[in-house]
Amino acid sequence: MTLQRPPVNSLNLDLLKEMSKSLDEIAKNKSKAMILTSASPKVFSAGLDIMEMYKPDLKRVEEFWTTLQEVWFKLFGSNFITAAAINGHAPAGGCLLAMSCEYRVMTGGNFSIGLNETALGIVAPNWFMDTMTNTIPVREAEYALTTARMFNVEEALKVGLIDEVATDKDDAIAKCKGFIGKFDRIPALARSITKLKMRQAAIKRLQDGRREDLNEFLQFVQNPKIQKSLEMYIQSLKKKA
Ligand SMILES: CCCCCCCCCC/C=C\CC(=O)SCCNC(=O)CCNC(=O)[C@H](O)C(C)(C)COP(=O)(O)OP(=O)(O)OC[C@H]1O[C@@H](n2cnc3c(N)ncnc32)[C@H](O)[C@@H]1OP(=O)(O)O
User: Fold this and answer.
1) Using one digit for the tens of pLDDT, what is the confidence trace for 95-114?
2) I want to staple 23 with a disulfide (CB 3.0 to 4.6 A). Which of 35, 74, 111, 134 is the partner?
3) Residue 20: which CATH number?
4) What mean pLDDT, rounded, does the chain reach?
5) Is the ipTM of this structure higher than 0.90?
6) 216 CB near ligand 1 (under 6 Å)
């Protein structure tokens, strides 16, 4: 699955809906595996589209968050094998997508990956945190989350946030295929049940608290102080360009 929403693959409602549909198709056609990557030469995904949260239409922003939850359920909780070929920056929601896969290969270069929410004055939702503690040790996750740490490629490899470094996108995809090939001699049902048991606690936490998570998000986007911060953040991104 190749993300292709220039310039930075920010996750807006339309892209999330497309992803959700594609994940359904992959599950339905009984694909063995999926590799998630990006058509951009330098950004895997810039995370959530800030414009979806800025001065939002309430109905749309509710659908936006619900669809993000759905994409996470379908990706994190998939039966099929998932790997991410991270060929560029992966901040926040971009990191969430990569961590929701089972294996991550990142191309070398001046790219960064991490959950930077606290730097934006935001508390990452529990399921973002659960996805991180499913990937790297709890102590490292707490440190990274509280300090909004963006890891460079070497740091990400050292902490286990990524599994391998690749020279370029083709190499990243080849390495993801190498990971997928490891399952050729492992019974598929045993593999998928084991994966889902490992992920069950995090999945159940969001299933049980899904409405509450949505309400927290809706309160968050309707808070005037948050709106002011988002406005300043958008300006800073635009000034940079
Ligand atoms: C207690 C419980 C509380 C519950 C509520 C909590 C709610 C939490 C909500 C979830 C929170 C966070 C999740 C997120 O994912 S928020 C998004 C965070 N993402 C970022 O901060 C990344 C910002 N972008 C960048 O750092 C860079 O763009 C890049 C990815 C490193 C790429 O750099 P670049 O130099 O290649 O591109 P750049 O010139 O910066 O950008 C090009 C244009 O794209 C626009 N843009 C960039 N990122 C976004 C984005 N995330 N959304 C929308 N638009 C984006 C940028 O403004 C440029 O636009 P223009 O060309 O100038 O018009």
Assistant:
1) 999 999 999 999 998 999 99
2) 74
3) 3.90.226.10
4) 97
5) yes
6) yes
